[in-house]
C-alpha cells in the first residue's frame, strides 16, 4: 500500500477516509472483521495516528466502523447505504422484510433465467451443493450463510448491477430473516428445496423461476404464521 500524500484540494483526513472507505467497499475487510491495529494501519497509510483516529471516528459516525474499547475496530457495514438499511430494518416487522425479499428475489429469478451463462450455472450448482452440504451438517449458522450465498448467486445471475448492489445492502437483513425462519436448530419442517429454482433458471423458464422464488418465500411466510 502506497503512503497517502496531502494535496491542496483534499485534506489528509479526507483522503484517509476515502482510502479506508474504498478498502471496506471492495471487501478487503469483510463485514464483521477487525481492521488492522492503529499503529499498523497508520504505518501502511503513511499518516500519523491522530489523523487516522479522526478518519476512523468519521467512519464510525457514518456507520461503517465500530470501535470497541479493548477489542479493536470492526467493519460494521460495507457502505453507508447498507448501514442505513440495517438500522431501518432492525426495527421492522418480519413480514415487511419478507415482502422486500420477495420484491428482490422474484424479479432476480426471472432475470436470471433470461440471462444465465454457462459460468452462472456452474456457480449456481456449486452454491446449491454447498447449501445441501451445510444442511446435512446440522449447523444452523453455517446453513444460513450457505443459503444466503445461493440467493446472492441468483441475484448475480440476473446481471443487473443496481439490483445486485441493492441486494448486497439488504444482505444483513436477509440473513436475519433466514435465522428467524430457520431458528437455532435445523429441523425437517424448516427445510425448503431450492433445486427446482435452479433447474428453472437452467432451463431459461422465466415464469417457472419467478414462481419457484415466490413459492419458497410464501412457505417461509406461512411458517411465520
TrEMBL record:
It comes from the Bacteria. PANTHER family: REGULATORY PROTEIN GNTR HTH, TRANSCRIPTIONAL REGULATOR, GNTR FAMILY. InterPro entries: GntR_C, TF_FadR/GntR_C, Tscrpt_reg_HTH_GntR, WH-like_DNA-bd_sf, WH_DNA-bd_sf. Keywords: DNA-binding, Transcription, Transcription regulation. Residues 10-78 form the HTH gntR-type domain. GO terms for molecular function: DNA binding; DNA-binding transcription factor activity. PROSITE patterns: HTH_GNTR. This is DNA-binding FadR family transcriptional regulator.
Amino acid at each position: 500500500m502506497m503512503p497517502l500524500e496531502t494535496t491542496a484540494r483534499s485534506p489528509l483526513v479526507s483522503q484517509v477516509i476515502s482510502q479506508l472507505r474504498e478498502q471496506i467497499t471492495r471487501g478487503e475487510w469483510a463485514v464483521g472483521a477487525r481492521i488492522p491495529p492503529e499503529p499498523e494501519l497508520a504505518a501502511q497509510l503513511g499518516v500519523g495516528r491522530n489523523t487516522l483516529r479522526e478518519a476512523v471516528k468519521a467512519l464510525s459516525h457514518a456507520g461503517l466502523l465500530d470501535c470497541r474499547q479493548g477489542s479493536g475496530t470492526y467493519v460494521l457495514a460495507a457502505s453507508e447505504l447498507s448501514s442505513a438499511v440495517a438500522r431501518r430494518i432492525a426495527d421492522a416487522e418480519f413480514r415487511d422484510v419478507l415482502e422486500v425479499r420477495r420484491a428482490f428475489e422474484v424479479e432476480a429469478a426471472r432475470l436470471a433465467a433470461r440471462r444465465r451463462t454457462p459460468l452462472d450455472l456452474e456457480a449456481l450448482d456449486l452454491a446449491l451443493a454447498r447449501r445441501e452440504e451445510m444442511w446435512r451438517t446440522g449447523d444452523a449458522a453455517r446453513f444460513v450463510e450457505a443459503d444466503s450465498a445461493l440467493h446472492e448467486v441468483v441475484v448475480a445471475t440476473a446481471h443487473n448491477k443496481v439490483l445486485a448492489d441493492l441486494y448486497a445492502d439488504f444482505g444483513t437483513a436477509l440473513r436475519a430473516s433466514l435465522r428467524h425462519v430457520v431458528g437455532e436448530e435445523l429441523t425437517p419442517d424448516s427445510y425448503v428445496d431450492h433445486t427446482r429454482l435452479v433447474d428453472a433458471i437452467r432451463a431459461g423458464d422465466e415464469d417457472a423461476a419467478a414462481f419457484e422464488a415466490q413459492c419458497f418465500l410464501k412457505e417461509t411466510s406461512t411458517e411465520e404464521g
